[in-house]
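Schema walk-through. Below, the input block comes first and the output block second. Nothing else is stored per chain. Lengths vary across the set, and this one has 335 residues.
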Amino acid sequence: MGRCKFGLVAGVFLCSCALVRSAELSTEENLRLYVGNSRGDDVSIVDMGSLKVIGDIKLGERIHGVCVQADGKRLFVTVESDHTLRIIDTANQTSIATVKVSGRPNQCAVTPDGKYVVVPIRDGDKVDIVDVSKREVVKSLPLKEPHNALNTGSNRYMFVSAMSGNEVDIIDLKKMDYATHIPVGGRPRPYVVSPDGNTMYVAEANLHGFVIVDIPSRKVIDRVEMPAEHSTPHALQYETADTRTHGLALTPDGNELWVTSLLDDCVYIYDVRSKKIVGKVATGGGPNWTVFTPDGKYISVTNTDSDDVSIIDVKERREVTRVKVGRVPKRLAVA
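--- output ---
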C-alpha cells in the first residue's frame, strides 16, 4: 500500500509516495536487490535476507537503467548496446519482452501500476514513453540530453532530468505532455523528491554536494557543499571528471539524505531538519547509486571501482558487508 501526500505544482497535483509493500513482503528475507552491471552484460540479484548473490540475468552489453514495479513482479532494464528496454519476470528471472526504443537509453522509471515506463534517450534529446501492455513506444517528447527518470508513487506523473537544459521536468502521462519544467541551476545528475512532494534534492555536475529545490515555487532555495579530503574524482571506472557525486537517497521517513562521494569513497549523511552533515560511512571504491530498503533498515550503494555493493546498516551507520557483483555496477533497485 502506498502512503501518499499531495503537492500542487503549476496547477497540477502531484503524489509523492513512500511505496510500502504489504507486511508479509516487506521484510529483508523477501526482498531482492537488482544491480545493473554497466560494463558487463547482466543484472545481479542479491537476496537481502542472506546478503548474497542468488542469480544473474544476462541481457546484453552496457546495462544502464534499472527500475522495478511496485509489486516486485516486473523488472525493467535499459540496454545501451542495442537500444532496448527489457521486461523481466522476477519470479523466474527471465526476460519476457524486448522493446526497441529510439536511441541510447538511460535511467528508466515505471509507474506503480506497471502500465508505463519512461525512458530518457540521451543521444536523441527525447524521452520515450513505453506502454508496457502494448510493448511499444507510444509517445516521444523532446528534451535536452535527458538522463534520469524518477517516479514518486504516481500513476499519472513522472519526473525526468534534462542535463543540457539544467532542469527537471514533470510529465503528465494522461496528457502525454509536460506538466511543468523546474530549473535547478546546473547540470542535474541524480535527484530525489521528499515524501510530501514539496522538496527536491539534486546532485549536479562539478558540485560535491547537492542543491535543494522548492517544487511549488520552482526555485533553488539552498546549495549544500559536502566536506572533501580529495579535490578530484579518483574513481577509475568513471567516465566524467565533472561528477563529484552520482547517488543520493532519502530515508523512507524523509529525515535524512544519504549522498555518495566519488572524492572520498563514502556516503555523507545530511539531516534534513537541522540542515547539517551529521555523519559519513566508508564504502567501496567509486560509490555510485543508492537505494534504501522500504523499512529503512539498510541502504545499498554500488561501487564502480571495486565491483561490489556496500550494504550499510542505517541506524548503526556502519557497513555490514560488501557483496561482489559484476563489472562496474551502477543503477540498482529493490523490491
